[in-house]
């Protein structure tokens, strides 16, 4: 015979629904503790993924509105500041650089998004040699056939590290992919017609810099606490088409904005800065190389488009413009920010200055040799 006390104990031991309890999920943890943060569109990570394209679209739309307004009314607005010849020169150079570079930018973004979405990171781990010192040059040379802009190379290299690729090889790929892929080399050939030596010099210098930085990490950074192991930018379980769409939108909006800024800066530099000052800086090889290297860091132009900006800086030598094209894809303000967020501030604080110095010295050496 069951007593009321026994019945009460049995009922309390069975997890039945309580009609008086507030609606919502049970307090018990889910089988996968990471599920709330990793699901697409759920939790903080998903919320960030959903909000970013909308904010970027608004910024991109506003940028287009401003540019169209300047194109229509710029002459009247700036008539008191610049001569008509100056405005025409600025507009011609700005439009020329932007229109020439945009097809290569779009092609590079599409190929980069396809690489991120459809090529698994495990492919690289299997293809690279097991010995770290040998994996570095192979990873560097793989950038010749695997396109990707610098914005995409950071998450791709992070995925490589997460899949077991040695950090030195992932770093070498991070530097080479946006600098020597087919789209970049083709855009350089179009920007410098009849000068194949510029294309060769860019490929050789960028390849050498990526390998040297990879080997430098093996010597100085292996086993250190400088590198924070990165997390995947896309949520686990996200479909390949969604990864392709979001990567393409993200990279195009960011790279397109920097292209517009770079084209405007190059046009302004040629119109506003006195030609005597530019000639004075350009006459000193070392100073001109460092100045254009710093300009590449500040402008942060996408690698598919920077050759057209470099070609417009006709006051400077080919060696100085080579430095501009070598430095930009591997160290600039947006890359420093991306590397800080992905790999940690300790890594960025050491990696960015070392990359800049190696790129400047390599540009001087290759420029003296080939140009």
TrEMBL record:
**TM region positions:** 58-78, 90-121, 168-192, 199-219, 252-273, 285-301, 307-331, 351-370
InterPro entries per UniProt: DUF318 (IPR005524), UPF0718 (IPR052923)
Keywords of the record, alphabetical order, are: Cell membrane, Membrane, Transmembrane, Transmembrane helix
- What name does UniProt use for this protein? Permease
Q: Which domain of life is it from?
A: Bacteria
The record's family statement is: Belongs to the UPF0718 family.
- Is Cell membrane given among the entry's keywords? yes
Ranges of Pro residues composition bias in the record: 20-34
Q: Tell where it localizes.
A: Cell membrane
Topology with respect to the bilayer: Multi-pass membrane protein
Cell membrane as UniProt keyword: yes
Report residue spans for region: Disordered: 1-52
Q: Which organism encodes this protein?
A: Kribbella ginsengisoli
